[in-house]
Amino acid sequence: MKKYFLLYLLATGVFLGHYAVSGHAVYGDGIDYWAYLHSWYFDQDSDFNNEYRHNYSPLYNNNFPDYESHEVVKTDITVTGKTNNFHPPGTAVILFPAYVVADFVSELSGTLRNGYSNIYQITTGLWAVGLAILGARICEAVAHRITGLRKEARSAAMVIFLASPLLYYGSYDVLNSHFASFLVSAIFWLVILSDRAHKWLYLGFIVGLAGLVRLQDLLLVIPAMAVTRKREWLGMGAIIAIIMSPLLWQWWQLYIKFYPETYLHNWIIGSGVWGSWFHFTNGLFWRTPILLVAISALPVALRLRSKVIKLMLLFFAAQVVIITIQGGWAAAAYGGRMYISTMSLFVVLLTILVRKLPKILLWGLVVLNFISVGSFVLFEKEVNSGKKRGLEEHTIRKIELTLGRLGVNWRFGQTIK
């Protein structure tokens, strides 16, 4: 556990370093998940109007009374006249305990209790980092049970965390759905490997929660059905439906329909699987080649005659299909983020391979990923202005002004006035 604690300290350092420079951790899709937290806890309703009129910036996050825009930003108004929030609430459910703790600490310390300030974002962010590290620890347990290799499983779990998209979404940009998707899917495989009675009940709960985090992870129902009896499918399906029912109710309230999502609406093939794997910015294997290295262990893995490995591969194949069809992999983001729920498979594969690989190669790929993340953050990230500039606009502006005071005339790009 000491190594995971050190990993947590490293990830925390990245998160806090980013926060110190940028001044906030809630932006982009994170605003949608934060809207749930604030609405549930402070307003005790599901109306997101005031959450989407809040100005998510360091100044206004720590401002009282709250400044609100005259109209909603980032989203739109639905056919029912309600403020839209098209992301599912599962991530917010997982973040909610930390949000409550943050409010308790804020009340005790006499600091601003508005649900947006630094104490809320930092506390919730540190919780998310911890859960991402917990996901890596669970992946180690899964790989150990499948392969019988304890030390190798630990090394593989840590290397995958540091050399894959998990580094970015488990330390830098944590208030998003990806840490939660990774954690829940890791727990799923651990339950698959267990000898629990009524396993169908646990699997139904986990699959439902996975779908509540990211709809594409409902595909976990395929391996869940493969390890349960047919007579248990109805009960498992009922549990999944119960867990998913808040989202169905929300969809009906917002759109007067039970399925407004576009996973199967667009059928965007485009550059297809080759894009989601090898695109320069968003490609799973191009951006984080450690995963391509891990794939080379597949022939050995199949000889283990493990049913779970085959189910992991089936889940990965199903994800490839849905990601290729939906086309969301091409959105502005780092690496193959939509594949994060499949990282347990790569930990298992790397566990098999790790003894045969030179340590210098493994840690070289870790360093390469740090460089890759740094390049994305500083030069490639598409920010709110729609321009390709690093970090957030105000962060770059702050860095440029600081360098200017030191007599260094440096520009990352066209400066926003």
UniProtKB/TrEMBL annotation:
UniProt keyword list: Membrane, Signal, Transmembrane, Transmembrane helix
UniProt protein name: Glycosyltransferase RgtA/B/C/D-like domain-containing protein
Transmembrane regions: 119-139, 151-169, 175-193, 200-227, 233-252, 264-280, 286-304, 311-332, 361-379
Signal sequence interval, chain numbering: 1-20
Residue ranges the record marks as coiled coil: none
